[in-house]
Design a protein that fits this description.
Length: about 200
Amino acid sequence: MMKLRERLRPDARRAQLLELGVRLFTERPYNDFTMDEIATLANVSKGLLYHYFPTKREFYMAALREATGEMLHLIEPSLSLPPVEAMRAALDAYLGFVEDHAPAYRAVLRGGVGADPEVQKIADDFRDAMAERLLNGARILQPTPEQRLAVRGWIGFVEAASLDWIDRQDLARPRLIQLLSQTFAAAMQAARTPRYLD
């Protein structure tokens, strides 16, 4: 039996399509489906899909922006918690998202569509926003250049560790959270007390 199409407001329809896009692009590689298939899965006409997203690439970019926005919302540190607890909660949310969206996470960080300059811009914007949230969560409201650099370097470490974790699956999530939070504390300590090697 054919499911009847539901009439939605334009913003609600666009949100529905983006939700589907996030799910699809995290489950399957970019080249594994066509706009025809997306329209069928969304139960909309191809014309309506093209009205919102003129190309598959535009649909993908919008879905990627949606996913990074969702992730930023999830990792927003709670200022009602002590900084260490807020960091652990944010890391747990981050790793949960990585685990749930592993194929897309790999694609963005390892190349493929991730090598696209626009994808890299979205990823870099995400890293900037994540760094700001981490510094705010650590109650560092006016970071020094050293602290900013340490956080950006730590984010690179988190990405590499997360990729290894989803590939190997040989470390329990709580242990990874502990490791990541300890390296963040060490990076912040090193940024606060510079020691120069002779």
